[in-house]
Structure formats: structure tokens, C-alpha cells
Specification:
The complex is a heterotrimer. Helices cover about 35% and strands about 10% of the residues of chain A. Chain A is mainly α. Chain B contains 14 helices and 8 strands. The chains are: A mainly alpha, B alpha+beta, C alpha/beta.
Chain lengths: ~170, ~375, ~160
């Protein structure tokens, strides 16, 4: 999904053969970025024990390059893990705006997608209304293999070097 | 929230929901650089309104949100609700079902205490090795849960009147193998954590909570038993099969962070003994009584207390003759312990660097206090 | 043995404060329920704590009876020696619910009274720190646990 207002002017575009060079640069750039997705340390709800098991020793998430990092400005992904209440949703939006481009959002669990088992609650929201989501991982809680599969889908999206997760 | 005023020489730190060690809450610390003068807890980040949505479901459909109230030890919380529902219906539970319930509850208790150890190790000296050991040892128990119930964390296994399925073939031998494996692993934890001089230096005489203060402020669970008061609901009002199992109530007298950690440690040993006893001596028989999902419960009220891994949970169930309950009041243990944590700054001198250690020794689970 | 101890407790309650309460009964053979008259709530609470030894505060919560046009607040307290639970109930009118705060007797009721205020709308006099506990500070939707709450998503 390319946003027309942000199409970058490339200086050597009209030179014949330059397209190949830019494709190679995009490919290497995408390859480097997809193997180092750094999410923020933010767990919002009850899927958090499963997230801890995924970063544990048996289903190691770090072999894909996914390292939870403490400082918000240096991360490039938010994994919204679990139920999002109204109070927490404001914080998620605040953190999303602090991250640098390009940035991605992954919704883990049935609750941030469509409120899950708390569908008629006055205090639970779907995270779609606050930030744009790239990958949805359903489950209650999703199995660790499902979470890793979801992160690999995100890597496929990043691979082409397309600009994603941009909201005006 | 509108926060109280602070004096000019005090600095207010907001330790918020986005932090590697804070969990899903915000804690405000008023400090003058070293000593903490006041602690204010800002709860409500995981409030889902469970008490309101339970009025919209039938009594058996309410098991689904209650299971997600505390994912780390679901069995101990959902057994409280299920016992209240079956008292409302007037159902008798067969004996084999009670023993299976105790087995699942004790496995959940070990799971939850391992989680507390992992966080405690990571906050005292950043022992990432011990934290990763706990994730591996929990996998042993999660594999047993998956074989018995079909799911790893939220299994919806207890029904009013019994349990959902019987033990599969070869399960009792696997339980005994898991008990022997975990007993060996706990020798490693004891040497790595409790006998480690760095851990002792960080945990001895920190955040002392005397017994009279613990009773007056309403502490519960290992936070209360670490101060020498022996209150354990499994002995006071036995539910499931606890009247037939032999175990001791563990108390320690030192009243500090190390005492609470040791209480959890020895409780795991008692749980392993109980699992072994259940696997060897479980009686034969039926596992559920007949029950239709949309039965109407007669009018009345019931109050059930159970002992979860964090303390005493109370469920007060009001029914009025329809399929849905009229009101469910849940008294969670973590809300009581968070009040104790707020007052700890006035009872003992706590430094800023000790705050993660202290809060992980109280071991709150915010999804349970916010409901 | 449990039954005799509970009936002893009921007898001692009736001996000490029989004219300030409306009724005392044993429910479910396990816990005692005392319904107190509105004006004597503070005095009964102090008697239970000082004379009968009920020093552990467990929780407090409310229940809304829309048909009878009243609300009821329930306080749960416990005894560290005999380990019994008493539920102390008081009826309050629905259109202007007010109660004295029991933080003067049991300090730890503070969190639970804050929650009862934001969920039911009960006003507590002399509460030290009445700010919302669980709902966000910008909440303007009403009192969620009342029976006539028409919030988002509730049918």
C-alpha cells in the first residue's frame, strides 16, 4: 500500500538501468529490517503468560530477531497482547505516536481484534479504533506456534521494502 | 486521576504500564532521591467489567470470563465460581471428581509460584538464567494440562457437578514422572536463589511487615503467612478433596521479603507431595452428575472462599430463580495486597532501588485485582 | 463443632447489640449475616472490631434492588482467631445514597469504598481519598453496576 503523498523522489530514476539498483537496495533493506523487529515491552492483558512462554527457551522468539526493548524511540513494533481497556488504549496510542517510522502493529489474541469473550463489556475496546493494525493473530490465548507464524507473516510484509503502518 | 499535592523537595516518579518490570499498572513514587516517602497505586488498566457481564450470561456460561480472570492459575479461581454455582443448583460432586479437581488446582498453584519466582529473580539481580529456567519448567506442567484438558492456559475444565473428562490412560505415571523431575529441579532453584549471598543481601530485612500490621491492613496469602499468621482456607473450610490430603500450612517468622519467598518455595514442595498422593490413591467412580445447561437456580445466596496462590478469594453469588445470576460479587486477593503495598512505605524504610523486589514479593496479579 | 461455635457467635452478637440491628442469621451453615439499622452502622462496626475481635477487613460491595427502590451495602469482615466471616448489611435509599465511611474502623476499606462510589454512586462521608479507582478519569457514562445502566454494548 503506497501512500501517494509520500512517494519519494529518487534522483536517478530516469537513467535506464537504475530500477535494478533500486530494487536491489530495497531488497537488502527489507531483508535487514525483517530480521530485527524490536517490539516494545508492553503487555496489556491476560495473554501475557503466553507471550512470556514464546520468549522463553522452548519456543524461542529471539532466533527470528525479535527482542523486546525498553526504550520506545528505538523500537519499531507494538505487539498488543491481550485485553485492551479504555484506560490502556490511550497509552497504546500515545506510544504508537512516539515510535519512529516505519512502524508496525500486531494484534495478538481475540480481545484486541473484536473484544473476545468480553464482547458486551462497557470497558473493553478493539484496538482497530485507535491504531492501524498490520497482522491479526487470533486465539484465546493463541498457541506459541501461532504467534511465531504471525510474526513470520509480518516479515513477509516487510520483505518487499514497502512502506507500511503509515497513518496520516 | 487527580493526584495529591507534593512538597517542593520531593520528586514524583511515574513507573508506568510501559516498563520491563512493572506489569499492567502505574505506580507513583514520591521520593527525595533515595528513600521512598509515599507510594500511590493507579489501578484499572485491565478493568473489563466482569461483574456486570456475568449478569448477562447463564451460570455455566459465566465460567468463560471467570477463567480469564487470572490466566496464571485459572483452576484456583474458577473452582470458587463453580462451587458456588453447584451449591446454588444443589448438586453433589462425586469423590473422584473432587480428587481430579485437587490435582488440577495444585498443578496451577505450582505454575503460579514458578511465575512469581521468575519475576523475583529478574528483579533482584537480573538473573535471566533463573527466569528462563522457570519458562522451561512450566512447559512440563503445560504439557500435562494439554493432555488432560486440551488447552494450555484457559481450559474451562470444571463443570457444576464434576469435571468435564476423565484422566486419560497413562496419565498417572506421567504425573509421577513430572513430580520427580520437578523435585530435582528445585534443588537448583534453592542453591541459585535462596542460598545465593547476593540474593540474601537484597532480600533480608527489606520491607518488614509485622503480624499485627498484616492483620490490620488485610493482607492475605503468602504475604500474610510470611509474617507468621497461619490462615489457609484449605484447612479452615476444606473444599474439593483437601480434607483427605495431608499437607502442612507453611509460615515463616522473619516477616521480610526472604520469608515470603521461602513460603512460596515450601508451598511448592507441599503441592508436589499432594500431586504424588493423588496419583497413587485416587478412587474410582463417576466423574459428573447429571445437569442441563439452562437449569434455573432457586432463589438464594451463597458465599464461597477458596485459597488461590495469591491469597483468599471470595465469591458471593445471588440468584433469583432465572437462568442468570442476579449479582456476583468477587473479592479478589490482589486488591487487598495492593493496599498493603501502598502502606509499606510508612511502615518500613524502603529505598527506590528496592521497589521491584518488594512488589514482586507481594506478587500481585493486576487482572485479578481489576476484574 | 463448627455449628456450636457459630451459634455461640450469634448469641454473643444478640447479647451485646440486639437493639441496634434488625436481624442476625446464619446462612449456609457457614457465615453470619447481620442487617443493621442505618443510624447505628458506625457503632455496630466498632463493637464488632473491639469487643468481638473482627479485625480483618476483607471487602465491601453493593447490590442494587431496583424493584424495591433501595440499594444495600455489604461489608465482609473476618476474625483472625475463629476465622469466621460476618457480612454486615445496611439498606440505603436509592435516590440519594449516603453512608459514613468505615475507614475510621477498618483502614483497608478505602479501596473498596472508592470502587463502590464509582460503580453505584454511593457517597461516603469523611473518606480520606475519594478518587476513581478502576474507571478512567474521563468516564462520563453513569454508574455501571446499577440495574438501569444503559451503557455501550449492554443489552
Amino acid at each position: 500500500m503506497e501512500n501517494e503523498d509520500l512517494k519519494i523522489e529518487r534522483t536517478l530514476e530516469n537513467v535506464p538501468g537504475a530500477g535494478l539498483v533500486y530494487n536491489i537496495i530495497d531488497y537488502i533493506d527489507g531483508w535487514a529490517r525483517k530480521y530485527s523487529i524490536w517490539p516494545i515491552h508492553l503487555v496489556t492483558g491476560c495473554c501475557s503468560p503466553e507471550f512470556m512462554q514464546v520468549s522463553g527457551s522452548r519456543f524461542d522468539m529471539e532466533r527470528l530477531g525479535i527482542l523486546p526493548f525498553a526504550s520506545v524511540r528505538q523500537c519499531d513494533c507494538i505487539m498488543v497482547v491481550g485485553v485492551v481497556s479504555r484506560k490502556m488504549a490511550d497509552r497504546v496510542k500515545y506510544l504508537y505516536e512516539q515510535m519512529g517510522e516505519p512502524k508496525y502493529v500486531v494484534a495478538v489474541g481475540a480481545c484486541p481484534i473484536g473484544k473476545g469473550p468480553f464482547y458486551d463489556s462497557y470497558s473493553v475496546v478493539a484496538i482497530d479504533e485507535y491504531v492501524p493494525v498490520d497482522v491479526y493473530i487470533p486465539g484465546c490465548p493463541p498457541r506459541p506456534e501461532a504467534i511465531i507464524h504471525g510474526m513470520m507473516e509480518l516479515q513477509e510484509k516487510i520483505k518487499g521494502g514497502k512502506r507500511l503502518g503509515v497513518k496520516n | 486521576m487527580s493526584e495529591p499535592e507534593i512538597k517542593p523537595e520531593i520528586m514524583r516518579i511515574s513507573w508506568g504500564p510501559q516498563h520491563p518490570m512493572s506489569g499492567q499498572t502505574r505506580i507513583l513514587l514520591d521520593t527525595d532521591g533515595e528513600k521512598v516517602h509515599r507510594i500511590i497505586a493507579d489501578l484499572g488498566f485491565t478493568h473489563r467489567g466482569i461483574e456486570k457481564i456475568l449478569e448477562n450470561r447463564s451460570l455455566i456460561g459465566g465460567i468463560v470470563p471467570i477463567d480469564r480472570m487470572a490466566m496464571v492459575d485459572t483452576s484456583n479461581i474458577s473452582i470458587g465460581y463453580v462451587t458456588a454455582a453447584e451449591k446454588a443448583y444443589g448438586l453433589e460432586v462425586p469423590e473422584r471428581a473432587n480428587w481430579i479437581r485437587s490435582l488440577v488446582c495444585e498443578m496451577g498453584r505450582i505454575n503460579s509460584h514458578l511465575y512469581a519466582f521468575g519475576l523475583q529473580a529478574e528483579s533482584t539481580g537480573y538473573f535471566p538464567a533463573v527466569f528462563l529456567w522457570t519458562t522451561v519448567d512450566r512447559e512440563v506442567l503445560l504439557d500435562l494440562f494439554e493432555e488432560l484438558t486440551g488447552a494450555r492456559w484457559s481450559y474451562n475444565f470444571f463443570l457444576p457437578g464434576g469435571v468435564y473428562k476423565d484422566l486419560p490412560e497413562g496419565f498417572k505415571e506421567k504425573v509421577i514422572e513430572a513430580v520427580h523431575y520437578l523435585r530435582n529441579r528445585f534443588q537448583n532453584y534453592w542453591t541459585a536463589m535462596i542460598e545465593n549471598p547476593m540474593f540474601e543481601m537484597r532480600c533480608n530485612n527489606v520491607a518488614v511487615l509485622k503480624p499485627e500490621d498484616a492483620i490490620r491492613l488485610g493482607a492475605t496469602g503468602p504475604s500474610l503467612r510470611g509474617s507468621g499468621v497461619d490462615i489457609d482456607i484449605r484447612k479452615i473450610e476444606p473444599y474439593a478433596a483437601y480434607a483427605d490430603l495431608d499437607f502442612d500450612v507453611i509460615t515463616e517468622d522473619a516477616c521480610d521479603v526472604m520469608a515470603r519467598t521461602k513460603v512460596r518455595f515450601h508451598e511448592i514442595g507441599q503441592s508436589l507431595n499432594m500431586m504424588e498422593q493423588i496419583a497413587k490413591e485416587i478412587p474410582e467412580g463417576p466423574i459428573k452428575t447429571r445437569f442441563t445447561p439452562f437449569m434455573r437456580a432457586p432463589e438464594g445466596e451463597h458465599y464461597i472462599r477458596v485459597e488461590t496462590s495469591r491469597g483468599e478469594l471470595g465469591i458471593h453469588l445471588f440468584t433469583n430463580g432465572t437462568t442468570n445470576p442476579y449479582r456476583v460479587k468477587i473479592n479478589p486477593p490482589s486488591l487487598r495486597n495492593m493496599y498493603v503495598f501502598e502502606r509499606l512505605a510508612e511502615l518500613d524504610e524502603i529505598m527506590v532501588a528496592d521497589i521491584p523486589v518488594v512488589i514482586n514479593s507481594i506478587d500481585p496479579w493486576y487482572l485479578d485485582s481489576d476484574r | 463443632m463448627l455449628k456450636t461455635s457459630i451459634s455461640n457467635l450469634v448469641k454473643s452478637v444478640e447479647d451485646i447489640i440486639s437493639d441496634e440491628i434488625e436481624s442476625v442469621e446464619i446462612k449456609d451453615e457457614k457465615y453470619v449475616s447481620i442487617t443493621v439499622k442505618y443510624d447505628y452502622l458506625l457503632h455496630v462496626a466498632e463493637t464488632l472490631k473491639n469487643n468481638l475481635g473482627f479485625t480483618i477487613p476483607v471487602a465491601c460491595g453493593g447490590i442494587d434492588y431496583l424493584d424495591e427502590d433501595k440499594m444495600q451495602m455489604i461489608y465482609y469482615i473476618s476474625n483472625p482467631k475463629s476465622r469466621f466471616i460476618i457480612t454486615l448489611r445496611v439498606d440505603i435509599p436509592r435516590n440519594s445514597p449516603q453512608l459514613p465511611s468505615l475507614t475510621q474502623v477498618w483502614e483497608a476499606m478505602s479501596f473498596h469504598e472508592r470502587e463502590a462510589h464509582e460503580m453505584f454512586g454511593v457517597e461516603f462521608k469523611d473518606h480520606p481519598n475519594m478518587v476513581p479507582l478502576l474507571l478512567p478519569p474521563s468516564w462520563k457514562g453513569g454508574y455501571p453496576l446499577r440495574k438501569d445502566f444503559k451503557g455501550e454494548g449492554i443489552k
